[in-house]
Amino acid sequence: MTHGKSAAAILIALSFAFAPQTRAEAETFEHLVTQYFAGSQSPDDAKRAAVKKARLEVLDIAGGYVQSLSVVKNGYMEHDEIVEIAGAVLEAEVVYARPCKTTADGYCVEVFTKVTVDDSEVSQKIEELLKDRVQTQKKIGMQRRDKELVAKLDRLQKEYEKLERYCKEMEGQLDSKFRKVVEQMNATDWNAKAFALWNGKAYEDPDSALQYLKKAIELDSCYAEAFINMGIAWFQKGDYEMAETFYSKAVGLKPDNPDLYLNRGVFYKSNGNLKEALKDYNRAIEYGYKEIPEAFYNRGLVHYEMRLFAKAIQDFDEAILLDPNNPSAHFNRGLSCHQDGKTDQAIQSYCKTIDLDPTHVRAYKSRGKAYLRLGMERLACDDFRRASSLGVSHVLEKMKRQGKCLEQ
Predict the structure, then answer these.
(1) Which are the contacts of 384, defined by CB distance < 8 A and separation ≥ 6?
(2) Is pLDDT above 60 for 246?
(3) For the chain, what is the largest distance between any 2 Cα atoms, rounded to a whole number of angstroms?
(4) pTM recorded for the entire structure
(5) What is the 3-state secondary structure (H, E, C) of the chain?
(6) For a tag site, which of 39, 258, 308, 324 has the least CB within 10 Å?
(7) Residue 320 CB neighbours (<10 A)
C-alpha cells in the first residue's frame, strides 16, 4: 500500500534503504509446531500439512522483524503485506518433523523450524520486489494461497473432530443398546444366530458360528443341538478331534435323538471310520428315522464302500421309496447292482437317473460300461459320446485307441 504517496516519493525513500544499521547483520528465529490430525489423512499427509503450517508461522514471526528494516518502513506497506513479502524472500528451514504421538484418534506431528534474516540480503530482495509490483503481487498471492490452505485444513480438522465426537457418542449409544439385546439372548437365540450362517451345505463363517455356539453352551451346558452344531463347525474347519468330541458330547446328552447319530455318522464316514458310521446310521434308523430317506441313503453308501452290495441295494431301495425323485439314490443303486452282477437292473437305475437329471455325466459313463458288459457296443459308444459332450471324454478316447466308437 502507498497511502497516497507518489511513485517518486517511494523511489526517494528507497534511496535510504542501505543506510548503516545499528542492529546485527543477521537474526535467527526458531519455532515449534505441534499439530494433531485425524480422519482420513495418512501420516505423510499430516506431516506435509504440519510442515507447511510451521513454515508460515515462523515466517510470520520473522515478518515482525522484517517490518523494522528501513527498506520496509520506506515502502509504506501494511503489516499483512510485510509478512507476506517476508515469506516471499525468506527461506524457512525445517530442522525436524517427527511424530510425537499416535493415538486411536489420529496422529500428532511435531515440526521444528527456523529462519535466518540477513539484513542486507533481505533488504536487497525487498527493494527488487518493490520496484517490480507485478512480481511482488504474484509472490504475495502465493503466500496468501498457502495461508488460506492451512486455514482451510484447520477448519476441516475442527469440523472432523466435531463429527468424530458425535459419531463416538452415537456409537456409544448403539453399543449400549446392543449390549442390552445381547444380555437378553438365551441359548436358543445364540444357536439360531449360528444357524443363520448355514447355507445348506456349510457354515459361511465357521469361526463366527463357533463363537455363537460357545455362548449358547455357556448359557445351557445341556444343549445337545448346540454341541452337534459345534461338531459340524469344527469338522468344517478340519479339526476332527474337536469335532468328534462335540459330536459325542451331543449324543451323550440325548442318546435317543436320531438326528445326532445321523450327523455323527456323516462325520465318521467322511473320516473313513465306516464301522462307527454304520453303527450310528443303524441307531438313527432305530431311534426314529425310518421315514427319513437320508438315513437309508447314507447307510447305503457305507454298505457300498464296505462291498456289501446286496445290503446297499436294499438301503437305496428304501431311500427311493421315501424319495423317488432323488437322482443320486438311483445312480448309487445302479452302481451297487452293477457290482453285484445285476447288470440289467443297473441299466434301469442309470436310465432313471438320466430321466431325472439329463446332465448326470457319471450315469452316461456307467450305463455305457454296463452296455459293454452286455455286448451292446453301439449303445455304449452313444453314452460315451454323451459323456464326452458333458466334459468327460477319457472313456471315449480309450475306446477310440482300441479301434472302437470311431463312427459318429
Answers:
(1) 364, 365, 368, 395, 396, 399, 405
(2) yes
(3) 123
(4) 0.57
(5) CCCCCCHHHHHHHHCCCCCCCCCCCEEEEEEEEEEEECCCCCHHHHHHHHHHHHHHHHHHHHHHHHCCCHHHHCCCCCHHHHHHHHHHHCCCEEEEEEEEEEECCEEEEEEEEEEEEEHHHHHHHHHHHHHCHHHHHHHHHHHHHHHHHHHHHHHHHHHHHHHHHHHHHHHHHHHHHHHHHHHHCCHHHHHHHHHCCECCCCECCHHHHHHHHHHHHHHCCCCHHHHHHHHHHHHHHCCHHHHHHHHHHHHHHCCCCHHHHHHHHHHHHHCCCHHHHHHHHHHHHHCCCCCCHHHHHHHHHHHHHCCCHHHHHHHHHHHHHHCCCCHHHHHHHHHHHHHCCCHHHHHHHHHHHHHHCCCCHHHHHHHHHHHHHCCCHHHHHHHHHHHHHCCCCHHHHHHHHCCCCCCC
(6) 324
(7) 21
Q: 338-350: per-residue pLDDT in tens? A: 999 999 999 999 9
Residue at grid coordinates 455325466: 361
- Left, alpha or beta for 51 (phi > 0: left; psi -120 to 50: alpha)? alpha
Contact indicator for 187, 197 with CB cutoff of 8 Å: no
Res. 110 pLDDT band, cuts 50 70 90: confident
- The amino acid at residue 242 is M
Q: Is the CB of residue 37 less than 8 Å from the CB of residue 97? A: no
* Amino acid identity at 219: L
Distance CA 102, CA 119 (A): 41
* Cα angle value 200/201/204 (rounded, 5°): 90
The grid cell for 33 is 509446531
Query: What's the confidence (pLDDT) of residue 55?
Result: 64
Instruction: Give me the percent of the chain exceeding a pLDDT of 70.
Output: 65
Contact yes or no for 349/331 (Cβ under 8 A): yes
pLDDT at 100 over 90: no
pLDDT of 362-378, one tens digit each?
Answer: 999 999 999 999 999 99
